[in-house]
Amino acid sequence: MVAREPGTTPFQIDLRRHLRENEEDRDLTRVICEIATASRYVIHSIRTGELGVAGTSNLYGEEQLALDVLSDRILRKRLVHSGVVSSIASEESSEILSVNLTGKYAVVYDPLDGSSLVDVNLAVGTIVGIYRGEDILQRGRNLVAALYILYGPRCTLVYSTGNGVHEFAMNALMEYTLVQENIRMKPSGTIYSPGGQRNKYTPGVEKLVQALEAKGSKLRYSGGFVPDINQILIKGQGLFLYPHLQDKPEGKLRLLYELNPMAFLIEQAGGAASNGRERILDIDPKAIDHREPVFIGSKEDVAMAEKFVQEFG
Ligand code: AFP
Protein backbone atom coordinates (compact mmCIF):
# COMPACT_ATOMS: atom_id res chain seq x y z
CA MET A 1 0.00 0.00 0.00
CA VAL A 2 1.51 3.31 -1.09
CA ALA A 3 1.17 5.98 1.65
CA ARG A 4 -0.99 9.04 0.82
CA GLU A 5 0.28 12.56 1.49
CA PRO A 6 -1.37 13.96 4.68
CA GLY A 7 -4.48 16.03 3.92
CA THR A 8 -5.29 14.26 0.65
CA THR A 9 -9.08 14.35 0.18
CA PRO A 10 -10.92 11.39 -1.42
CA PHE A 11 -11.96 13.44 -4.44
CA GLN A 12 -8.28 13.88 -5.29
CA ILE A 13 -7.96 10.13 -5.66
CA ASP A 14 -9.01 8.92 -9.08
CA LEU A 15 -9.56 5.29 -10.03
CA ARG A 16 -6.15 4.73 -11.63
CA ARG A 17 -4.34 6.30 -8.65
CA HIS A 18 -6.35 4.16 -6.21
CA LEU A 19 -5.40 0.99 -8.09
CA ARG A 20 -1.77 2.14 -8.18
CA GLU A 21 -1.78 2.95 -4.43
CA ASN A 22 -3.04 -0.60 -3.84
CA GLU A 23 -0.15 -1.83 -5.97
CA GLU A 24 -2.51 -3.77 -8.22
CA ASP A 25 -1.12 -5.68 -11.21
CA ARG A 26 -0.57 -3.20 -14.08
CA ASP A 27 -2.50 -5.31 -16.57
CA LEU A 28 -5.45 -5.69 -14.19
CA THR A 29 -5.39 -1.93 -13.67
CA ARG A 30 -5.47 -1.52 -17.44
CA VAL A 31 -8.56 -3.77 -17.79
CA ILE A 32 -10.45 -1.96 -15.01
CA CYS A 33 -9.57 1.47 -16.43
CA GLU A 34 -10.65 0.41 -19.95
CA ILE A 35 -14.04 -0.61 -18.50
CA ALA A 36 -14.28 2.77 -16.77
CA THR A 37 -13.52 4.44 -20.12
CA ALA A 38 -16.20 2.32 -21.83
CA SER A 39 -18.76 3.52 -19.27
CA ARG A 40 -18.32 7.11 -20.50
CA TYR A 41 -19.60 6.05 -23.94
CA VAL A 42 -22.33 3.88 -22.43
CA ILE A 43 -23.71 6.68 -20.26
CA HIS A 44 -23.61 9.05 -23.22
CA SER A 45 -25.63 6.51 -25.25
CA ILE A 46 -28.15 6.05 -22.41
CA ARG A 47 -28.66 9.79 -22.10
CA THR A 48 -28.83 10.59 -25.79
CA GLY A 49 -29.12 7.35 -27.72
CA GLU A 50 -31.74 5.42 -29.57
CA LEU A 51 -33.94 3.44 -27.16
CA GLY A 52 -35.41 1.29 -29.86
CA VAL A 53 -35.20 -2.41 -30.52
CA ALA A 54 -32.12 -3.86 -32.19
CA GLY A 55 -34.19 -6.44 -34.01
CA THR A 56 -32.15 -9.31 -32.56
CA SER A 57 -32.42 -11.51 -29.47
CA ASN A 58 -29.86 -12.83 -27.01
CA LEU A 59 -29.08 -16.37 -25.85
CA TYR A 60 -32.11 -16.30 -23.54
CA GLY A 61 -34.48 -15.35 -26.32
CA GLU A 62 -34.78 -11.86 -24.80
CA GLU A 63 -35.31 -9.10 -27.35
CA GLN A 64 -32.13 -6.98 -27.55
CA LEU A 65 -32.56 -3.25 -27.33
CA ALA A 66 -30.34 -0.98 -29.36
CA LEU A 67 -28.63 0.07 -26.13
CA ASP A 68 -27.87 -3.54 -25.15
CA VAL A 69 -26.10 -4.19 -28.42
CA LEU A 70 -24.33 -0.81 -28.43
CA SER A 71 -23.12 -1.20 -24.81
CA ASP A 72 -21.89 -4.71 -25.57
CA ARG A 73 -19.96 -3.44 -28.60
CA ILE A 74 -18.40 -0.55 -26.64
CA LEU A 75 -17.18 -2.82 -23.83
CA ARG A 76 -15.87 -5.47 -26.20
CA LYS A 77 -13.92 -2.87 -28.22
CA ARG A 78 -12.26 -1.40 -25.12
CA LEU A 79 -11.38 -4.82 -23.69
CA VAL A 80 -9.82 -5.94 -27.00
CA HIS A 81 -7.97 -2.59 -27.11
CA SER A 82 -6.49 -3.28 -23.65
CA GLY A 83 -4.25 -5.95 -25.19
CA VAL A 84 -4.28 -8.05 -21.98
CA VAL A 85 -7.63 -9.86 -22.31
CA SER A 86 -7.59 -13.54 -23.36
CA SER A 87 -11.32 -14.17 -23.72
CA ILE A 88 -14.66 -12.43 -23.25
CA ALA A 89 -18.15 -13.71 -22.42
CA SER A 90 -21.03 -11.25 -22.64
CA GLU A 91 -24.61 -11.83 -21.53
CA GLU A 92 -25.61 -10.36 -24.89
CA SER A 93 -23.74 -13.00 -26.90
CA SER A 94 -24.17 -16.77 -27.14
CA GLU A 95 -20.48 -17.28 -27.96
CA ILE A 96 -17.32 -16.93 -25.90
CA LEU A 97 -15.00 -14.56 -27.79
CA SER A 98 -11.36 -15.66 -27.92
CA VAL A 99 -9.39 -12.39 -28.08
CA ASN A 100 -5.68 -13.01 -27.46
CA LEU A 101 -4.21 -16.37 -26.44
CA THR A 102 -1.40 -14.61 -24.56
CA GLY A 103 -3.86 -12.37 -22.70
CA LYS A 104 -3.70 -12.53 -18.89
CA TYR A 105 -7.37 -12.02 -18.03
CA ALA A 106 -10.73 -13.55 -18.98
CA VAL A 107 -13.64 -11.12 -18.62
CA VAL A 108 -17.36 -11.84 -18.17
CA TYR A 109 -19.90 -9.02 -18.26
CA ASP A 110 -23.49 -7.97 -18.52
CA PRO A 111 -23.10 -4.78 -20.54
CA LEU A 112 -26.40 -3.16 -19.59
CA ASP A 113 -28.30 -5.05 -16.93
CA GLY A 114 -31.90 -3.88 -16.52
CA SER A 115 -31.87 -2.23 -19.95
CA SER A 116 -35.66 -2.55 -20.19
CA LEU A 117 -35.81 0.08 -17.41
CA VAL A 118 -34.08 2.83 -19.42
CA ASP A 119 -37.25 3.90 -21.23
CA VAL A 120 -38.95 4.55 -17.87
CA ASN A 121 -35.85 6.44 -16.66
CA LEU A 122 -34.89 4.01 -13.89
CA ALA A 123 -31.27 3.19 -13.02
CA VAL A 124 -29.37 0.47 -14.89
CA GLY A 125 -25.85 -0.88 -14.72
CA THR A 126 -22.85 -2.74 -16.13
CA ILE A 127 -21.60 -5.80 -14.21
CA VAL A 128 -18.08 -7.22 -14.74
CA GLY A 129 -16.12 -10.20 -13.44
CA ILE A 130 -12.38 -10.71 -14.14
CA TYR A 131 -10.47 -14.04 -13.94
CA ARG A 132 -6.80 -14.91 -14.46
CA GLY A 133 -6.09 -17.09 -17.52
CA GLU A 134 -8.45 -17.77 -20.40
CA ASP A 135 -11.09 -20.06 -18.87
CA ILE A 136 -14.50 -18.39 -18.65
CA LEU A 137 -16.35 -21.19 -16.80
CA GLN A 138 -14.53 -20.75 -13.50
CA ARG A 139 -16.11 -20.69 -10.05
CA GLY A 140 -16.77 -17.21 -8.68
CA ARG A 141 -14.28 -17.83 -5.88
CA ASN A 142 -11.54 -17.64 -8.55
CA LEU A 143 -12.42 -14.06 -9.47
CA VAL A 144 -9.46 -11.68 -9.15
CA ALA A 145 -11.69 -8.63 -9.46
CA ALA A 146 -15.32 -7.60 -9.86
CA LEU A 147 -16.94 -4.24 -10.47
CA TYR A 148 -20.16 -2.59 -11.48
CA ILE A 149 -21.06 0.78 -12.88
CA LEU A 150 -24.42 2.24 -11.88
CA TYR A 151 -25.99 4.70 -14.32
CA GLY A 152 -28.32 6.52 -11.95
CA PRO A 153 -28.80 10.15 -10.85
CA ARG A 154 -25.03 9.93 -10.30
CA CYS A 155 -22.78 7.60 -12.25
CA THR A 156 -20.86 5.49 -9.73
CA LEU A 157 -18.34 2.67 -10.00
CA VAL A 158 -17.77 0.08 -7.27
CA TYR A 159 -14.82 -2.34 -7.47
CA SER A 160 -12.89 -4.89 -5.47
CA THR A 161 -9.69 -6.79 -6.27
CA GLY A 162 -9.97 -8.75 -3.03
CA ASN A 163 -8.66 -5.87 -0.90
CA GLY A 164 -11.93 -4.31 0.20
CA VAL A 165 -14.79 -2.67 -1.71
CA HIS A 166 -14.41 0.91 -2.92
CA GLU A 167 -16.90 3.40 -4.44
CA PHE A 168 -16.13 6.12 -7.01
CA ALA A 169 -18.31 8.79 -8.63
CA MET A 170 -17.96 10.23 -12.13
CA ASN A 171 -17.18 13.96 -12.04
CA ALA A 172 -17.88 16.70 -14.59
CA LEU A 173 -14.76 15.65 -16.52
CA MET A 174 -16.14 12.08 -16.63
CA GLU A 175 -13.31 10.86 -14.36
CA TYR A 176 -14.04 8.52 -11.44
CA THR A 177 -12.93 9.95 -8.08
CA LEU A 178 -13.04 8.18 -4.73
CA VAL A 179 -16.18 8.52 -2.61
CA GLN A 180 -15.49 5.88 0.06
CA GLU A 181 -13.28 2.82 0.54
CA ASN A 182 -13.46 -0.46 2.47
CA ILE A 183 -17.28 -0.52 2.58
CA ARG A 184 -18.55 -2.89 5.31
CA MET A 185 -21.93 -4.57 5.77
CA LYS A 186 -23.82 -5.02 9.03
CA PRO A 187 -24.78 -8.62 9.97
CA SER A 188 -28.53 -7.94 9.73
CA GLY A 189 -30.61 -5.52 7.66
CA THR A 190 -33.83 -3.51 7.62
CA ILE A 191 -34.56 -3.59 3.87
CA TYR A 192 -35.30 -6.47 1.52
CA SER A 193 -35.49 -6.64 -2.27
CA PRO A 194 -37.74 -9.54 -3.44
CA GLY A 195 -37.56 -10.46 -7.14
CA GLY A 196 -40.00 -12.68 -8.98
CA GLN A 197 -43.77 -13.13 -8.61
CA ARG A 198 -44.81 -13.55 -4.96
CA ASN A 199 -47.61 -15.98 -5.87
CA LYS A 200 -44.96 -18.32 -7.27
CA TYR A 201 -42.82 -18.34 -4.12
CA THR A 202 -42.22 -21.72 -2.48
CA PRO A 203 -43.29 -22.24 1.17
CA GLY A 204 -39.75 -21.62 2.44
CA VAL A 205 -39.39 -18.32 0.54
CA GLU A 206 -42.87 -17.20 1.60
CA LYS A 207 -41.95 -17.86 5.25
CA LEU A 208 -38.67 -15.96 4.75
CA VAL A 209 -40.50 -12.87 3.46
CA GLN A 210 -42.97 -13.05 6.36
CA ALA A 211 -40.05 -13.30 8.82
CA LEU A 212 -38.30 -10.32 7.19
CA GLU A 213 -41.49 -8.25 7.42
CA ALA A 214 -42.00 -9.42 11.04
CA LYS A 215 -38.55 -8.12 12.01
CA GLY A 216 -39.42 -4.76 10.44
CA SER A 217 -37.63 -5.00 7.08
CA LYS A 218 -39.08 -2.67 4.44
CA LEU A 219 -39.47 -3.62 0.77
CA ARG A 220 -37.14 -1.81 -1.63
CA TYR A 221 -37.22 -3.16 -5.24
CA SER A 222 -36.56 -1.35 -8.52
CA GLY A 223 -36.34 -4.31 -10.90
CA GLY A 224 -32.71 -3.46 -11.65
CA PHE A 225 -30.18 -5.85 -10.12
CA VAL A 226 -27.38 -3.25 -10.03
CA PRO A 227 -29.30 -0.43 -8.25
CA ASP A 228 -30.99 -2.94 -5.93
CA ILE A 229 -27.68 -4.50 -4.89
CA ASN A 230 -25.98 -1.08 -4.74
CA GLN A 231 -28.64 0.13 -2.27
CA ILE A 232 -27.92 -2.83 0.05
CA LEU A 233 -24.14 -2.48 -0.30
CA ILE A 234 -23.94 1.30 0.17
CA LYS A 235 -26.49 1.32 3.02
CA GLY A 236 -24.43 -1.57 4.43
CA GLN A 237 -27.41 -3.79 5.16
CA GLY A 238 -30.35 -5.74 3.76
CA LEU A 239 -31.21 -8.78 1.65
CA PHE A 240 -31.78 -9.14 -2.10
CA LEU A 241 -33.50 -12.30 -3.27
CA TYR A 242 -34.41 -13.62 -6.67
CA PRO A 243 -35.43 -17.08 -5.46
CA HIS A 244 -36.28 -20.42 -6.99
CA LEU A 245 -39.95 -20.19 -8.06
CA GLN A 246 -42.57 -22.93 -8.35
CA ASP A 247 -42.28 -22.76 -12.17
CA LYS A 248 -38.62 -21.68 -12.31
CA PRO A 249 -36.55 -23.77 -9.85
CA GLU A 250 -33.35 -22.15 -11.15
CA GLY A 251 -34.64 -18.60 -10.62
CA LYS A 252 -33.81 -15.94 -13.23
CA LEU A 253 -30.37 -14.42 -12.66
CA ARG A 254 -27.25 -15.58 -14.48
CA LEU A 255 -24.41 -17.06 -12.43
CA LEU A 256 -21.53 -15.87 -14.64
CA TYR A 257 -22.53 -12.31 -15.47
CA GLU A 258 -24.71 -11.21 -12.54
CA LEU A 259 -24.40 -13.41 -9.45
CA ASN A 260 -20.67 -14.19 -9.22
CA PRO A 261 -19.41 -10.59 -9.58
CA MET A 262 -21.98 -9.27 -7.08
CA ALA A 263 -21.36 -12.17 -4.67
CA PHE A 264 -17.61 -11.39 -4.81
CA LEU A 265 -18.25 -7.73 -3.96
CA ILE A 266 -20.80 -8.41 -1.20
CA GLU A 267 -18.57 -11.06 0.44
CA GLN A 268 -15.60 -8.68 0.22
CA ALA A 269 -17.74 -6.18 2.19
CA GLY A 270 -18.47 -8.81 4.88
CA GLY A 271 -21.83 -10.02 3.53
CA ALA A 272 -22.88 -13.39 2.09
CA ALA A 273 -24.41 -14.84 -1.09
CA SER A 274 -26.16 -18.20 -1.39
CA ASN A 275 -28.52 -20.08 -3.67
CA GLY A 276 -30.33 -21.23 -0.54
CA ARG A 277 -28.18 -24.31 -0.11
CA GLU A 278 -24.60 -23.38 -1.00
CA ARG A 279 -22.34 -20.35 -1.43
CA ILE A 280 -22.78 -18.73 -4.87
CA LEU A 281 -18.99 -18.44 -5.33
CA ASP A 282 -18.56 -22.21 -4.85
CA ILE A 283 -20.96 -23.25 -7.62
CA ASP A 284 -19.38 -24.87 -10.68
CA PRO A 285 -20.75 -23.07 -13.76
CA LYS A 286 -22.25 -25.67 -16.09
CA ALA A 287 -22.62 -23.35 -19.10
CA ILE A 288 -22.45 -19.63 -19.88
CA ASP A 289 -26.25 -19.37 -19.45
CA HIS A 290 -26.25 -21.10 -16.04
CA ARG A 291 -28.92 -19.56 -13.76
CA GLU A 292 -29.20 -19.87 -9.97
CA PRO A 293 -31.58 -18.68 -7.27
CA VAL A 294 -29.93 -16.03 -5.10
CA PHE A 295 -30.13 -14.68 -1.52
CA ILE A 296 -27.45 -12.01 -1.09
CA GLY A 297 -26.67 -9.30 1.48
CA SER A 298 -26.29 -9.18 5.27
CA LYS A 299 -24.87 -12.44 6.63
CA GLU A 300 -27.60 -13.15 9.21
CA ASP A 301 -30.35 -12.44 6.67
CA VAL A 302 -28.76 -14.89 4.20
CA ALA A 303 -28.43 -17.50 6.97
CA MET A 304 -32.14 -17.05 7.77
CA ALA A 305 -32.97 -17.55 4.07
CA GLU A 306 -30.94 -20.79 3.99
CA LYS A 307 -32.71 -22.04 7.15
CA PHE A 308 -36.20 -21.49 5.67
CA VAL A 309 -35.29 -22.89 2.25
CA GLN A 310 -33.62 -26.00 3.66
CA GLU A 311 -36.49 -26.62 6.11
CA PHE A 312 -39.50 -25.73 3.94
CA GLY A 313 -38.24 -25.76 0.33
P1 AFP B 1 -33.50 -7.16 -17.90
O1 AFP B 1 -32.00 -6.99 -18.06
O2 AFP B 1 -34.11 -8.08 -18.90
O3 AFP B 1 -34.23 -5.85 -17.77
O4 AFP B 1 -33.72 -7.92 -16.52
C1 AFP B 1 -33.16 -7.32 -15.38
C2 AFP B 1 -32.88 -8.46 -14.42
O5 AFP B 1 -32.11 -9.44 -15.03
C3 AFP B 1 -32.20 -7.94 -13.16
O6 AFP B 1 -31.57 -6.71 -13.36
C4 AFP B 1 -33.34 -7.79 -12.17
O7 AFP B 1 -32.93 -8.05 -10.84
C5 AFP B 1 -34.35 -8.83 -12.63
O8 AFP B 1 -34.13 -9.02 -14.03
C6 AFP B 1 -35.76 -8.35 -12.43
O9 AFP B 1 -36.60 -9.40 -12.86
P2 AFP B 1 -38.18 -9.23 -12.66
O10 AFP B 1 -38.58 -8.20 -13.67
O11 AFP B 1 -38.72 -10.61 -12.94
O12 AFP B 1 -38.42 -8.77 -11.25
From TrEMBL:
Pathway the protein acts in: Carbohydrate biosynthesis; Calvin cycle
Entry keyword annotation includes rRNA processing: no
Cofactor: Mg(2+)
EC assignment: 3.1.3.11
Major enzyme class: hydrolase
Highest taxon, organism lineage: Bacteria
Main localization category: cytoplasm
Intracellular or extracellular location(s): Cytoplasm
Catalytic activity field: beta-D-fructose 1,6-bisphosphate + H2O = beta-D-fructose 6-phosphate + phosphate
Matches recorded under InterPro entries: FBPase_C_dom, FBPase_class-1, FBPase_N, FBPtase, Fructose_bisphosphatase_AS, SBPase
Residues the record lists as binding Mg(2+) 2: D110, D113, E258
Pfam families: FBPase (PF00316), FBPase_C (PF18913)
Cofactor note: Binds 2 magnesium ions per subunit.
GO MF entry, a single one: magnesium ion binding
Biological process annotations from GO: fructose 1,6-bisphosphate metabolic process; fructose 6-phosphate metabolic process; fructose metabolic process; gluconeogenesis; sucrose biosynthetic process
Signal peptide: none
Binding, substrate: D113, G114, S115, S116, Y221, K252
GO CC terms of this entry: cytosol
Keyword Magnesium: yes
Subunit text: Homotetramer.
Family the entry assigns: Belongs to the FBPase class 1 family.
Protein name: Fructose-1,6-bisphosphatase class 1
UniProt organism field: Geothermobacter ehrlichii
Lineage: Bacteria, Pseudomonadati, Thermodesulfobacteriota, Desulfuromonadia, Desulfuromonadales
Gene name of this polypeptide: fbp
